[in-house]
What does this fold into?
Amino acid sequence: MTRILLQAESPDSSSANPARIRTLLIAILIIFILSSCETPESIPAPIVEPVPVIASQDEKLRQEIAYLKKLLAEKDELIKNQKIRQQDQAKALQEVNKEATRAQVKLHRLATKPSTASAIAETEVALAHLKQIKIPAADQILLIQAQQLTETASTLFSNDQYASAMNYVAQAKHLIELITNPNRKKESNGHSMLLEFHTPIKLHTKANVNLRNAPNTQSRIISTLKKATEVTANASQGAWLRVQVNQNQGWVLNTGLETEKN
It folds into this structure.
């Protein structure tokens, strides 16, 4: 093709020949077509990473974890509902005790001289019987308190204060029932009625005991009282005594306390 072009432009050629001109134009056209039809550079296709497949073992592990979480949530809900029921039962029992106390107070206000004298005499007979039999050391504490209450009731009776005397006698009878009832619970579950002592009792510890902030074994320990520590009991609830030790007040199991030897 180059040679044709050179021949067409050679100075030795004669006047322009139409056939040569045609050939020259055809050659130029072919060169143009060839140059425009060059193959473009190919672009490599993008590499697609395969999606990882979760192993069946991992899927089973996830299902097991989800099941355990669900089971744990159900148990937590069950425990929560049970605690709510226990709290409701405790409140209901407290209301019953309050109502019984109010009814008892009303009856005492209506006390007469014969009925009060009969109640005091009945309590004194029960105390005399308990003094003749052997009772546990923990019950000795309750016996002393019942004796003091009965003596106070007798004093009030002699002053014609029959309602107040009946109140003291009722508390003494309650303590006697705690001593003589073989089916009473040895440890408090938080539902036993609180009994305030009108006359505090001087006691001391038989061994190292824990002073707690509530009458149950799950409550916080305030301090540990060493053996032979003197305390003053001012209330009871079930098998627990509320005691005062210096500036601290808390609860101690009555099995860890005893009266003075004399």
